[in-house]
Amino acid sequence: xxxxxxxxxxxxxxxxxxxxxxxxxxxxxxxxxxxxxxxxxxxxxxxxxxxxxxxxxxxxxxxxxxxxxxxxxxxxxxxxxxxxxxxxxxxxxxxxxxxxxxxxxxxxxxxxxxxxxxxxxxxxxxxxxxxxxxxxxxxxxxxxxxxxxxxxxxxxxxxxxxxxxxxxxxxxxxxxxxxxxxxxxxxxxxxxxxxxxxxxxxxxxxxxxxxxxxxxxxxxxxxxxxxxxxxxxxxxxxxxxxxxxxxxxxxxxxxxxxxxxxxxxxxxxxxxxxxxxxxxxxxxxxxxxxxxxxxxxxxxxxxxxxxxxxxxxxx
Length: 315
Prior knowledge:
Distance between the termini: 219 Å
Radius of gyration: 67 Å
Mean pLDDT: 79
CATH topology of the domain at 34-131: Elongation Factor Tu (Ef-tu), domain 3
């Protein structure tokens, strides 16, 4: 079968277009014959991420950033497309986190695998996250220190204010006077101490004699301790005897007094004596009452008729 010239030209054009497409994707780092998957993530800030930056899982290279563009919804968020060459399953709740790959600030997308039993399919949008920058991390670490430093400065400012108030002119004068008084007091104490030293030095022999006498007395008391104990024992016995004698005499006198009082009471009850008759015989009481009444009548009559009892003569 003879092929026409037009057919041959068509085949050459198709092959050329296929080679051109393959070469273009090859230059972009994509292999159209491999089992590649594309996932999407949306960020408010990509923090210096560029196209063709690596995508890793657990530190292993699995793909690269294929494209980056603003969200078509017009909210200025950035959409990145990640081309994954590795067939590893990616759970739906996995997180695509932009991290620093070196100290120079190069960025990498790390996919942190989730725990969901459902797996993402090409075209799905993964959750996004951004690693804190060194500056942000330093600020976060230094923030507590900054707060403490500010609190310390405020405390120092308060202390300095109090110190300034303490050392104003009035307080300074008072402190100066107090220091002067303390100096005088120390001088007086020193003077008194010197005087005591002089007195003690002058009376040293006398003090020594007194101490010797005290020591001698103590020694005598120690040597005669047994005699002193006997004397105290005898004194205690004499005191007890005197106490017993006094109590006995007192009780005897009290007994005699009670006996005498009992005899007097018996005599009164039996009508002996004037007091007994007065207590037991009411006739004496009646006579005394009658005599008192007659005396009152006589006194009243004398008051009313004095001329009857008193006579006056005029010379």
